[in-house]
Amino acid sequence: GKAGHDHYMHKEIHEQPHALRQTISGRVDELGGNADLDIDLDDDFLRTLDEIHVVACGTSHYAGLYMKELLESLVDVTVRVDLASEYEVYDGHDASQTLVVAVTQSGETADTLSAIRRAKASGMTSFAVTNTVGSTITREVDDSLFIKAGPEIGVAASKTFVSQVTTLALFTTYLGRLRGTLSAEDGADLVEHIRQLPNAVQSVLDAEPKIQRLAEQYVDSDAFFFIGRGLAYPVALESALKLKEISYVHAEGFAAGELKHGPLALVTENTPVLAFLNDAAAADDTVNNVKEVESRGAPVIGLSTPDETNSFCEHSIDVPELGRLEPLVANVALQLFAYHVADEMGRPIDKPRNLAKSVTVE
Ligand code: M6R
């Protein structure tokens, strides 16, 4: 049941510290600065491959984009992230040196299964990152890695997104250490941040009353925009998807630098802007974008570590310092924001209109 929560989604948001402990348990090698993962793919292949293709839909696609940002800064590999429904393999591509990774919570998404089949037909080695043991995807791929988030009932993904990104961060560590591009020291930093995730997420959950008040204050807005750079850009996209999915209000995520190339025309005093000002996400550059929207009268909610970075924002939500995983923790605050906007509007949060938990048609 819902264990005293009004909705499964609320329960699942609050379950995240626990879900993350399961995701991480036994997989962090602090001394070696490495991830201890049970991966059956051939080490020599992982050492020499030169491309990774990620195929996924919706929230899982954004988890893939987060991994791309991590991988490309830490590991010598080119990463392509495609919406599964858009994925094509081109003639002449060296499939033998490419790993295709399906990111899918359910393991049953038809678009993702179909993309994996196209990749396999071209000769690629395939890998799945999924929550569901025994799902169709696990029978199609060469090897699977489980995110271990536990069952998720709400149609909107919450704990599974955070567990996916965490699992992909572990995979990044593993690959970086195996290929020698990630030093033991940098690996130790990353796994230390992974280890601290459950507590960091808990501290954001503890700020729920403040986040709820902000949601109630802005519930009547025309639209909501989320802006971020680097690692925070996929989180901006995910936060916007969450809000639109459960509240039916228009919400969009933008790369902060893109505002001036068009979206700024939408900004008014009735469109709150939620800005990621995390250190690991080029906060200083985003500050300028915040000033651009503030001068158009938009209320700004800044997410950052509790320092001066957000002091000029109309509102701020504190996110503990957590290096490259800080934007992921910021996401939890915006899950709560989306939840409370939707709840205030009386939406059927666990079962939004027109949507299904797993989409088994292409
Ligand atoms: O099970 P999957 O991860 O393959 O599902 C992919 C999307 O359908 C899913 O993430 C969808 O976008 C969620 N409802 C978002 O909250």
What does this structure look like?
This protein starts with 7 loop residues before the first helix and ends in an 18-residue tail after the last helix. The strands form 3 sheets. It has a 5-stranded parallel sheet, sandwiched between helices. It is globular, with a radius of gyration of 20 Å. It has helices spanning 8-14, 16-24, 43-48, 58-74, 110-121, 136-140, 159-179, 184-205, 208-218, 232-247, 283-294, 326-344, and strands at 28-29, 34-35, 51-56, 78-83, 98-104, 125-130, 143-146, 224-228, 251-255, 273-276, 300-304, 315-318. The protein contains 12 helices and 12 strands. The protein binds 5-amino-5-deoxy-1-O-phosphono-D-mannitol. The site of 5-amino-5-deoxy-1-O-phosphono-D-mannitol has 16 residues, from α4 and α10.
Give a short synopsis of this structure.
This protein is α/β, with parallel strands linked by helices and 362 residues long. The protein has helices at 8-14, 16-24, 43-48, 58-74, 110-121, 136-140, 159-179, 184-205, 208-218, 232-247, 283-294, 326-344; strands at residues 28-29, 34-35, 51-56, 78-83, 98-104, 125-130, 143-146, 224-228, 251-255, 273-276, 300-304, 315-318. The strands form 3 sheets. It has a 5-stranded parallel sheet, with helices on both faces. Strands 9-8-10-11-12 form a 5-stranded parallel sheet, with helices on both faces. A two-stranded antiparallel sheet has the order 1-2.
Keywords:
Glutamine--fructose-6-phosphate aminotransferase [isomerizing]; carbohydrate derivative binding; EC 2.6.1.16; 12 helices; alpha/beta; 43% helix; binds 5-amino-5-deoxy-1-O-phosphono-D-mannitol; transferase; repeat; 15% strand; 12 strands
